[in-house]
Design a protein that fits this description.
The protein has a single domain, classed as Trna Endonuclease, Chain: A, domain 1, CATH 3.40.1350.10. The longest helix is centred in the first third of the chain and has 19 residues. Helices cover 32% and strands 40% of the residues. With 117 residues, the chain is of the alpha+beta class. Strand 2 and strand 3 form a beta hairpin. The protein has 2 helices and 5 strands.
Amino acid sequence: MAEHNKTGRSGEETAANYLVQKGYNVLARNFRYKRAEVDLIIQLDNLLVFVEVKTRSSHQHGYPEEFVSDRKIELFRVAATEYIEQINWLHDIRFDIIAVTISGREYTCYHIEDAFH
């Protein structure tokens, strides 16, 4: 596995653990629909949250959350819509970003709730 893939996977695992500690239930990881993907789908009571996880090993080229492109958001919404239809979700939804920064062996999570609509 390429190093950037390992970094991404460890960031997703860190984000999932972070969210579980905050009381969320992880419903799905890496949900795919056609060319679209959602890293994490979580739930807290009657709130369904679609999470994009961005992981970087430094801030040298910018913060992780700055790398969520408009195209990524568009594909993210496509996958989220498919998931909502598959489970017939009738309650609130939200789109979040978890920015994970790795410094040595330390991982830092920055949770941006309602990051885009």
